[in-house]
Design a protein that fits this description.
The protein contains 17 helices and 11 strands. The chain has about 350 residues and is of the alpha/beta class.
């Protein structure tokens, strides 16, 4: 059957859950010089179905190398890059496929998927609205709507943002934005918990480890969590953390785990609007005499999304949310965690403790 119609046979194997066999058969044909672009594209799909993303990406790049400027080859490379979570490059290749052949609805659908993964609802909708409605397309439109109305920044958006910034994050934050949140929190710690040391510390949204670096001298144990795998790798390279986890901070706080003497969130809560879930999670994970230290940007009332897509919180909101979660305000002072356009950003440095 494979000799008579190798592509159909491979697709049948993939559909029946035997993608590994389909990949072996197609590789054998290609090695024997008996397959062209369609065989290589089907091989990429077989490898993706088998969970071999690295192999799929290698074969997709080979397909483009052998068939430069051919839209289906570029589309397949975009699909493999998307599976590898290389979102900016995937979007670029899928857009290139559309320039080569504007009549590729699959490319537009994959671009929408990539933008949804990146938390960019409006950009996803731009592509989805031009496609024929199907249950899958309608589900993605609904997902984009949920992102737009959520009371926190989408996790995909935050991960995508910081994966992109990871290479020069420290230089950008310290040099361009005068980032001061770690030192501000260290100063606040000296006010509300003077003399405390040998602490177990959890760094929420740890990034590359700038806050961890500031607090390491006070820590017997230092753990960190961040949505961005690239940022976690930068933090790991510092060698200051006992444990690092890629994950959402709300989920990390809700999961079973040790109690901490100190939980930090330096310039992290700006990606969350409603803080009720965070405060409740912190309350469960704080030791009886523990503290939660964090910075926010200032709002006049409640919480609001600012023009830079960073959430702001008012003094009154922070106090009310803390009280609802069973946390007492040990300190709340005006602070400028960073600069924008060479101007200090109004904010707060806050210390909470169990009531």
């Amino acid at each position: 059957m494979l000799d008579e119609d190798p592509i159909a046979a491979a697709e049948a194997l993939i559909a029946s859950g035997r993608a590994d066999q389909a990949a072996r058969d197609l590789r054998a044909r290609l090695a024997a010089g008996r397959g062209g672009l369609l065989a290589r594209i089907t091989l990429v799909h077989a490898l993706l179905a088998a969970g071999d993303t690295g192999g799929a990406l290698e074969e997709a790049r080979e397909a483009v190398s052998l068939n430069p400027g051919v839209a289906p080859a570029v589309l397949t490379l975009g699909e493999a890059l998307l599976a590898a979570e290389a979102l900016p490059t995937a979007i670029a290749e899928l857009q290139r496929a559309l320039r080569l052949d504007p009549n590729l609805p699959r490319a537009r659908e994959l671009i929408a998927i990539a933008w949804l993964k990146a938390g960019e609802a409006d950009k996803a909708l731009e592509n989805l609205r031009s496609l024929e409605p199907t249950p899958a397309i309608e589900a993605m439109i609904a997902s984009a709507g949920r992102i737009k109305t959520a009371s926190r920044s989408d996790a995909g958006y935050v991960r995508h943002l910081f994966d992109q910034f990871s290479a020069d994050y420290d230089a950008r934050m310290i040099g361009q934005l005068s980032y001061a949140a770690p030192q501000i929190l260290l100063d606040l710690a000296s006010m509300v918990m003077p003399g405390r040391e040998n602490l177990s510390v959890l760094d929420l949204g740890c990034g590359t480890g700038l806050a961890g670096l500031a607090f390491r001298p006070l820590a017997a144990r230092l753990d960190g969590v961040d949505l961005s795998p690239a940022m976690i790798e930068k933090a790991r390279a510092r060698g200051i953390y006992n444990d690092l986890m890629v994950g959402d901070l709300e989920s990390a706080l809700a999961a079973p785990g040790p109690a901490y003497d100190l939980i930090l969130a330096a310039d992290t809560l700006v990606y969350l609007g409603d803080l009720a879930c965070v405060f409740e999670g912190v309350r469960k994970r704080l030791a009886p005499e523990g503290y939660f230290l964090f910075t926010t940007e200032a709002a006049s009332e409640g919480f609001e999304l600012g023009p830079k897509r960073r959430w702001r919180h008012s003094d009154a909101y922070l106090r009310a949310a803390a009280q609802s979660a069973g946390l007492a305000v040990a300190g709340l002072v005006a602070a400028a965690p960073r600069h924008e356009a060479n101007q200090p950003v109004d904010g707060f440095a806050v210390a909470l403790m169990p009531e």
